[in-house]
Amino acid sequence: xxxxxxxxxxxxxxxxxxxxxxxxxxxxxxxxxxxxxxxxxxxxxxxxxxxxxxxxxxxxxxxxxxxxxxxxxxxxxxxxxxxxxxxxxxxxxxxxxxxxxxxxxxxxxxxxxxxxxxxxxxxxxxxxxxxxxxxxxxxxxxxxxxxxxxxxxxxxxxxxxxxxxxxxxxxxxxxxxxxxxxxxxxxxxxxxxxxxxxxxxxxxxxxxxxxxxxxxxxxxxxxxxxxxxxxxxxxxxxxxxxxxxxxxxxxxxxxxxxxxxxxxxxxxxxxxxxxxxxxxxxxxxxxxxxxxxxxxxxx
Length: 299
Prior knowledge:
mainly alpha; 0% strand
């Protein structure tokens, strides 16, 4: 006897077909965006380089040689020269990239998790839950976030874990607002009403039927969040409240080189250019993903 086909089965098949069609169109649109594709490839290469190159470097990033300070690029086997302490600049850029990119990705993940949870709860449950969460969000957005960061790091310390935690705790607000809007939009859909009518619990409806509809917006927010986190860490390190030497990061390398901007300008250019290019690439990737995942009907 043939298995009985339920309304839920029909809805699942229809939703799966729509999702496959949607993601297929998104991939085609993204592939047409040359700037976004180049940004993705370069970012993958950068992340791969900072993970792999440390195993092949011939110079230790923390080894001090006061007799070899400010060597020009290529001198004595130093590809990009040495800094004010005689340390190999290229090795420090690689290790610093691992720290800066790692902080950026980790802080982004934390802010996405916090923002997604709070935004989903506010949008789905509404009422006093929505009111409390959104007023907290508005209050956080009304404060100068960078000064909050400086205050928290001054009080709690400047370890890498604390930097990641503080950036995540002060950058989730826009994600929460985006997810709340997506949840409110999806909550009024017919398939959600059908799922509720079939007896699914509120949590099941939220996590199985509503929250997946926010994935495209969360992906875009995540790429832009990495750029924000990298720039924030660099700013904090430049001010002396970020990653502490001798651990290298692009921000504290820039901070250490500012006193030698005229005598050894290359020490400023290398980390500054890497920060600029990385943030620019993540922003370009985010713009490309936003256009590709746009549901306005572009083919």
